[in-house]
Predict the 3D structure of the following.
Amino acid sequence: MPNIPDIKPDINLSKKDIANLLLSSIAMEELGLAEIIKAQGRKLEKITKETCDINVLLEANSNVNQLLKTIVKKEMLLLMKLESVVDFTETHEVKCKKHCKHEKECECECECEYDDYDCK
């Protein structure tokens, strides 16, 4: 019988690192969507230069319109993801400032998990 190895990845990320990674993922998705929108614009530009057939133009427009609707849906999901990241960072800062014993601004570098308030 095969054995599954005991894998214990040791990943230590601060809350600030987590927020930065999440924000980076949102930015990368936004860049991808921007490229798709640009490509659709180029597609329409090419089609309008190549043909005057109204049926071809309407079909191309319909395809681009459908894709843009999908992109709008994706943008709504990204907005919710961004709002969650903002809530995550604000919640940590408020709890840390309320409970931690240090006087400096919270940079999310303290490793308190809200049960142990003896921050560095």
Summary: The two ends are 48 Å apart (CA to CA). Helices lie at 15-50, 54-99. Confidence is low (pLDDT under 50) at residues 114-120.
